[in-house]
Known about the structure:
By secondary structure, this protein is of the alpha+beta class. The protein contains four helices and four strands. It has a single domain (5-106), classed as RelE-like (YaeB-like fold, 2-Layer Sandwich). It has helices spanning 10-26, 29-44, 57-60, 98-106; strands at residues 5-8, 67-72, 75-82, 85-93.
Amino acid sequence: MKRFKVLIDPQAKKDLQEIFFYAATNDNISAADKLLDAIEKTCYKLKEYPERGHVPQELRQTGIKRYLEIHYKPYRIIYEIENSIIYIHSILDGRRNIQEILSERLLR
Length: 108
């Protein structure tokens, strides 16, 4: 079985920081740590099963199919596979306007 390398790009790291700060502020630091760990574990599971994601609906409508997503509800992890590397581009709260965010980040 081919194993892939997972890289979290700077924007996705910023997303993780924002998620942590939001959870720490609205819950507590322990809960924020657990949430961050769970999201990161979900990202790194892609090493073994990179094709398990699906094209985000917002991108499918535009005909762009090179990005995939997986979920750690309510968070959506947007990634791309190039050769044997998985690039995590965004980790977004699914309750936000995903169309607008993806347009700004991926379609520029």
